[in-house]
Amino acid sequence: MKYKKYEYDNYNIHFLKTDKFKSIFVSMILINDFEKGALTKNSLLRRLLTTSAENLKDETEVLKKEYDLYNSNVFISNSIYNNVIVTDFSIEVLEDKYTEKGLLKKALDYFFDKIFKPNIKNGKFDENNYTLAVKSLNDFYDREKENKRRYAYIKACELLDDEYFKYNSSGYKKDLEKITNKKMVDYYNNLFKCANCNIFVIGSFDEEELLNIINGRVRDKLHKNKNNFTLNCNENKFELKEKIDIENNNQSNLILIYKILNMTDRERNVILPVFNRILGVGNNSKLFRNVRESKSLAYDIRSSAYRDGSLIIIEAGIDSKSMNETVNSIKEEIENLKNGNINGEELEEAKIFRRRTLKQFEDDNESILYIKINSILFGDDDLDERKESLKTVKRDEIISLAKKLELNVVYMLKGETENE
Amino acid sequence: MNKIKLKGLDEIIFHEKLDNGLNIYVMKKDFNSFRCYFITNYGALIDKFVPINEKKMHTFPKGIAHFLEHKMFEQKSGPSVLEKFSSLGGLCNAFTNYYYTTYYVSGVDNFYENLNFLIDYVQSPYFTDENVEKEKGIIDQERLMIKDNPYRTFYMKSLENLFVNYEYGKTIVGEKEDIYNITKEDLYKCYNTFYNPSNMSLIIVSNKDEKEVIDEVKKNQKNKIFEKGSKIKIEKVTEPNEVNKKYDIFYDNVTKPEIGYSIKIKIDKFNLDYDKVLLYLYILINSNFGKISKFNLKLKEGNIIDGDIGKGINKYDDYIVISLNASSNNEKEIIKLFDDKFQNLDIKEEDFNLIKKSMISKFVYYFTSVNSIINYLYDEYYDNKKITGDTFIKYKELNFEEYKKVISQLDTNYKSITIMKPLNMKE
Questions:
Q1: Chain-centre distance for alpha carbon A37
Q2: Domain CATH for A142
Q3: Does A71 lie in the same domain as A35?
Q4: A250 and A145 both lie in a single domain
Q5: CB distance from A415 to chain B under 8 Å?
Q6: Residues 108-167 of A with CB under 8 A from B
Q7: B173 is a domain residue
Q8: Is B89 in Cβ contact with A352 (below 8 Å)?
């Protein structure tokens, strides 16, 4: 795969050329400094931009256009990367040879129209679309409680202090009430003014033609801004927070959040994924084997690692009566790791697991692209670096990382109708 | 060994039926990853049958196929199934649906070792009173987790209200009493009846030569002894055209009422391949009730519904079910609007062609990853217990004239309404 970067004053274009796939995937990444109020605005803006455009007055016209472009759908997503907010506009287009000549050009025109030609007239988003977007977001907030697992996760993260991670990336109903149509237009205009921008493309395409298309559409729209992303190293002191909320459901959702103190770059990029696999990823992890299989305490248990926020989050579906036993059992697994209870076989299996994941990424255009994005914009290792450094992971390094874990949050969303 | 051409796609799948009756489907694709499905034609709806070497029809507790799936991961000796796959770099799991139980492994290394172990562990059951007892708590937690999803409950209730005799409305894991009644002996009876190779299939996508893969499976099966497979007698359930309940309200942990509107249609009403009927109805429902329709947009603009209309077209044995659902506080209005719309359907050639174009382009995406390829092959298998390779061509053959004919035969007489309301609306 050939990688080439084109640097411009106010943006960069990155090409990853490969003929392994049947489509071309384009992603435009905006990086803006974190601001809590932006979370809700982003959620609203996503709805406004995806459901209409200057020449497509409503969502039926948008969908018809996308069907006509062989399902070239425009997606917009937002995520918090520690101290920045990432907005990702993306589109996947089938190669001309499977569809019709000139599809890429037509699809990219549509893509950039969606981003840069919104349905704004007289300084306002089209009133009808605006009302529908606000209604849709309000409805989303009203239903947030219905997904207990996600709701428990949001409530547990709220207990973290001083961190960007404590915020709900989808925003808040209360903030939505304060937003007006006019404010959204200002927000939309400022989003591009203040953003650091990179455009990534993966697939088989004519480089010159694509450069012309992209430059022609973005040159005057983007501005020169720095990417201010930094990593959270958890240098501040904190106290253990414990909370139980009660909900009307059968099962209880238990969440433990561990902070990882002062990780080195190698720990963050190389050791953490292997450590997390050993702890709680997949059905041969320590948590799965010991907490679920041996002790039958949970139907479901897993851990997730967040390199930018320096966190490990453990989630389990349990019977609330087993809360103390499950919490103790999870703590015991972490203590065991700190005390070196990990054998060579477990480490090898975790490395094999990780190697499989990395090789599977090579089979998927989006995975390759997003690994590249993470490496260029957020300092993670590239795919080849990841594969090489994996071989060098040692048992002592896993133990040393385990010793940096400190429990910060114990949260349970307790099912009050438990066991019917 | 025969080659099945996936017509219109330039793709080939190799098929062979072994002497012991095991069907193998193999496709070669140049990805790092491989994925293998080992399927038994036995799922949650099959609970009344004549066990192997017996003569009488026997009724087993609901949820037993799923329980069996869990217990297949036990081994008599050596490392556990999970440990063994982990050491081979394989990622394994299993799932049970109405008619099948599927065990799978995926990975990038040690393909043959992973494939052989997948077959070996599924073909060596080890159930004890102790390990069966231990599993009951875990499965009960899974049952509770499912019950915590009100929309899943809503879906099951809708099916329960549609069918008089079919048991699609029952949960795949069974109820608490079913789970706690299952014994080691029950599990062995079900296993011995349905896990015979003659009732099973392998679907494999890898970067290995197809013939080599089939030879490897033959080698694996060569020295294993199985009882001769015979046709399994399963109680045949007949279903009337009428629905079980025309109108039903229940309460669950949701914030807004959800209205389900389902129509039950006997497949033989249409003189056409049911695959094509499903496709035509998919186009009809999407063009009239989907995001592409002005109808959906008008209901949102008029504050009659929150979000979009949900849609589904599914086959349940001899019936096709059209399902619509919407979140709304105006249940009477929405039901009337749906009724009226079915009396005045839009049949536009432009919409037909756009939706068909979108459906066809999805096929190209199927062949961009091992997972989506195997999902596609599994979908083909699901309806026929075999892979025919003619799905894509059926998509291409769809035409507006036939579409209009199918729509003219649409019978919307058998309808069931299911309403899920928030708990705080309970009187």
A1: 19
A2: 3.30.830.10
A3: yes
A4: no
A5: yes
A6: 128, 131-132, 135-136, 139, 142-143, 145-146, 148
A7: yes
A8: yes
Position B232 in a domain = no
Q: Which residues pair with A303 in a beta bridge?
A: A314
Of B173, B188, B222, which residue constitutes the final position of a domain?
A: B222
Contacts of B109 in chain A (CB under 8 A): 352, 355-356, 359
Domain co-membership, A339 together with A304: yes
The chain A residue lying nearest B151, using CA atoms, is: A146
**Which whole number is the average pLDDT over B125-152?**
90
B180 and B65 in a common domain: yes
Is residue A278 domain-shared with residue A191, that is, in the same domain?
no
CB–CB of A284 and B86 under 8 A? yes
Closest to B269 (Cα-Cα) out of B395, B166, B407: B407
Q: Are residues B297 and B352 in the same domain?
A: yes
Pair (A44, A145) in one structural domain: yes
Residue in chain A nearest B356 by alpha carbon: A67
Tell whether A74 and A202 lie within a shared domain. Answer: yes
Distance (Å) of CA A50 to CA A53, A96, A125, A129, A294: 8, 24, 13, 10, 48
CB A252 within 8 A of CB A168: no
- The pLDDT of residue A420 is above 70: no
Whether residue B69 lies in the annotated active site = yes
Sheet with B91-96, edge to edge strand ranges: B2-6, B11-17, B23-28, B200-206, B34-40, B101-107, B91-96
From B386's Cα to the closest Cα of chain A, the distance in A is 27
Tell which residue, A405, A406, A403, A402, has the closest CA to residue A240.
Answer: A406
Q: Kindly report, residue by residue over B190-245, the tens digit of the pLDDT.
A: 999 999 999 999 999 999 999 999 999 999 999 999 988 889 999 999 999 999 99
Closest CA to A206 of A101, A350, A326: A101
Position A227 in a domain: no
Given the residues B11, B16, B54, B69, the one annotated as active site: B69
Q: How many domains does chain A have?
A: 2
Q: Do B141 and A94 count as a contact with CB atoms less than 8 A apart? A: no
Contact flag A94-B145 (C-beta cutoff 8 Å)? no
Q: Is the residue at B405 inside a domain?
A: yes
Q: pLDDT digits over B102-135, tens only?
A: 999 999 999 999 999 999 999 999 999 999 998 9
Cβ contact (<8 Å) for A251 and B300?
no
Alpha carbon separation from B325 to B155, B242, B404 (Å, rounded): 10, 20, 25
- Which residues 211-270 in chain A show a CB within 8 A of chain B? 247-251
pLDDT score of A26 more than 60? yes
Residue A157 lies in a domain: yes
**What's CA B250's distance to the chain center, in Å?**
26
B83:A360 CB<8 A? no
